[in-house]
Amino acid sequence: MAVALVSLAPACLRAQSPSADLSGTWEAETPDGPQTVIVRSDSSASFGEEMVRWRLLADTIYIEFGDEWVGYNFVLQGDLLTLSGGDLEEPVTLKRIGPALPKGGGGSTELVMTPRLSSPPRTRAVRTYTLN
């Protein structure tokens, strides 16, 4: 399932501002058809039945898959989010199609706050990649 979430992102073009708001409902075209990812401001994200945690550090989003954190470079330009690096063979672009839905699926208010790190998450394995 890690590939499903990760295969929904675009190429990193420039450094990202520390105030990037990635919350929302995102959609990407994949070989398996359109995929939807919901990124919430409480540092959770879901796609299908899968739920993951995420953190930002500069222009990198770290996503926890099981007990492993994987780092992906990201560029946010309006409602387009491009992910690259990590375990992606090529960049993936997602389009924000709406606000983030709460975990329970009800309600309509989303807090505007973005989890931040001063260093990468501590875990058994952290992989990060930087594009030149």
Output the number of helix runs.
1
- CATH fold annotation: Lipocalin
The number of strands is 9
Distance between the termini: 28 Å
Main β sheet profile: 8 strands, antiparallel, barrel
What is the total domain count?
1
N-to-C order of helices and strands: HEEEEEEEEE
- Could you report the average pLDDT, rounded to the nearest whole number? 75
Helix content: under 10%
Radius of gyration: 13 Å
List keywords for this structure.
132 residues; mainly beta; Lipocalin; eight-stranded antiparallel beta barrel; 1 helix; 9 strands; globular; disordered N terminus; disordered C terminus
Break the fold down into its secondary structure elements and pairings:
Blueprint: H1 2-6, E1 24-30, E2 33-39, E3 44-47, E4 50-57, E5 60-65, E6 68-77, E7 80-84, E8 92-98, E9 126-127
Parallel strand pairs: 6-9
Antiparallel strand pairs: 1-2, 1-8, 2-3, 3-4, 4-5, 5-6, 6-7, 7-8
